[in-house]
Amino acid sequence: FFFKQKTAYEIPKRDWSSDVCSSDLPLLAGVGTYAHEIFERVDDLDYLFVPIGGGSGAAATCIVRTGMAMRAKVIGVQATGADAFTRSWRGPDRVTADRVNTIAEGVATRVTFDLTFSILKQQLDDIVTLEDADIEDAVRAAVTLTHNLAEPSGAAALAAARNYRPAGGKKVACVITGGNIDTRTLRRLLG
């Protein structure tokens, strides 16, 4: 619905064993499905927190929100130790970080990508940066309170919602992704 329906049928056969970039349209279409499912279930959502690495998830979420005419604010989430996107989005110039330092590997990008950055520059409502300690607390909260295992970058949305503190009575959703966390890290966090 937010990409021409025929697009999926026109995508040439491709060797998907190679790297997929955050600006690949098939990737945007795929990750946009979670936003569509969220908005279908909660049509009066006020805030949706989405982790930002390359930006495909947040960009697709913004596209879906617009396509479905939803009023929810889309809030991006990054780690303070990997905030090149945040600094680029807030500042006049795009930034490339020399290095990144965060437990949240899925949002640990040094650069922005043209397509996703241009979408988010126009459509993202706000962005939150988090210290690793907040992200670690959110991994623990996801496991103990919701019984969901989230990798640190996925739990970042939960941490952001806790820190952002929308006014009372607001409906908030968090995109909590993946279980891509090694057992040593998980033991340390739950220890």
What's this entry about, in short?
With 191 residues, this protein is α/β, with parallel strands linked by helices. The chain has helices spanning 7-10, 25-41, 56-67, 84-90, 114-123, 132-146, 152-164, 183-190, and strands at 47-51, 73-79, 126-130, 172-174.
Please give a structural write-up.
- The longest helix has 17 residues.
- Helix content is 45%, strand content 10%.
- β1, α3 and β2 form a beta-alpha-beta unit.
Total of DSSP H or I helical runs spanning 4+ residues: 8
Radius of gyration: 16 Å
- Helical residue percent? 40-55%
Write the H/E string, N to C: HHEHEHHEHHEH
How far is the first residue's CA from the last residue's CA? 45 Å
Number of strands: 4
Strands of the widest sheet, in order across it, are 3-2-1-4
Strand content: 5-15%
Structural class, from helix and strand content? alpha/beta
Show unreliable segments: 1-12
Shape: globular
The main β sheet shows up as: 4 strands, parallel
User: Mean pLDDT score, rounded?
Assistant: 87
Keywords:
single chain, 191 residues, alpha/beta, four-stranded parallel β-sheet, 8 helices, 4 strands, disordered N terminus
Topology of helices and strands:
Blueprint: H1 7-10, H2 25-41, E1 47-51, H3 56-67, E2 73-79, H4 84-90, H5 114-123, E3 126-130, H6 132-146, H7 152-164, E4 172-174, H8 183-190
Parallel strand pairs: 1-2, 1-4, 2-3
